[in-house]
Amino acid sequence: MRPYGERWRASYACDPWGSRGRLFPEAVSPTRSEFQRDRDRIIHSSAFRRLKHKTQVFVYHEGDHYRTRLTHTIEVSQIARALARSLGLDEDLAEALALSHDLGHTPFGHTGEDTLDECMKEFGGFDHNAQALRVVTRLERRYAEYDGLNLAWETLEGLVKHNGPLLDPEGQPTLRYAERGVPLAILEYNAQHDLELATYASGEAQAAAIADDIAYDSHDIDDGLRAALFDIEELREVPFLDEILTEIDARYPGLELSRRIHELTRRVITRFVEDVVAEGDRRIAALAPTTADDIRHGAETVMCFSHKMREADASIKRFLFAHMYRHPKVMQVRAEADDVLRDLFQRFKNEPEAMPEEWRADLTRDDEARLARRVADYIAGMTDGYAILEHRRLFDVTPDLR
């Protein structure tokens, strides 16, 4: 039975009452749709709570005003819901996917992923999307009847494929996985529960993916300005941002800096969202989908920027890469964070008894690959602060990461 007052959905939206189901069948909830249940399970997971103490670019010492993985995730969720609502997609599925998209991230932002990937090079590498799948299918251990969260097929599909197909029509890895292959964790789960890796994900997953890009562009500008890594006038190097700043200054001459920054970031979000909705409308009209599968089997994504806004997005990312992600201050912290995680990985791999009992149980030194993956799972789940505390416990000298 569908609940009273349910929102309108387009025919090409994922139907929560027609889900392809869960790996472990469960009775239907009388009060929540399948996607609402998934959203709630994600919010109540341990991995989700830990996002509060995992950072994006800055480590936790930098202050309370900078984004963490959790605040970023909430912003992505808000944008994803707005996109889904505008295009008749299922808001709850878009929200669940936005809330889960960073569950596989390590401490210390992208530095942590790069470090673990290097440490795991001979054991299949480390990929945060594959790790997110491990989290929601294996590593969360809360329920009596199964490991993981037992999420619906549509949620798992979107989690794995939100950036596009992983395989081409011939079954070969797509460009981003061409060199190293699709991560083993994804292939192993897919063998049990086919996620159709050669197709696009649903429109809801695509909405969550592009919401992530929009949130990054806007909040990294905000955080970079707060940290004084660049000046607001330097943003005029980006024509898109120069146009917005000129508009703000004409309407609000002499506006104080904090309000000027907020006016800039909110306009960035608004223009990107409006562009995605307009481009999505155009592409959906051209495809004329009548089911969610029509979007999955389309020749291209339906949720994306127009050509003009793709260039704006790329130009913002180029600016941030040069002025923020590769800023000497950030690079120094990255190097120190890299040292911390490399030290922890080698110590736990050489001395698994240094890990808590639940992490070293049933391990043997003979199975080096399994041991390495267990160590990577343990480290990936750490918050920034816990990684530093573990390093201090095991080593005489720990970087300040300031």
From TrEMBL:
Domain of life: Bacteria
GO-annotated molecular function: dGTPase activity
Source taxonomy: Bacteria, Pseudomonadati, Pseudomonadota, Alphaproteobacteria, Hyphomicrobiales
Keyword Hydrolase: yes
An annotated GO BP: dGTP catabolic process
SMART domains, per database record: HDc (SM00471)
Protein name, entry field: Deoxyguanosinetriphosphate triphosphohydrolase-like protein
Domain HD: 69-217
Family: Belongs to the dGTPase family. Type 2 subfamily.
Keywords, sorted A to Z: Hydrolase
InterPro entries per record: dGTPase, dGTPase-like, dNTPase_2, HD/PDEase_dom, HD_domain, PHydrolase_assoc_dom
Organism of this sequence: Microvirga aerophila
Encoding gene (name): dgt
HAMAP family assigned: dGTPase_type2 (MF_01212)
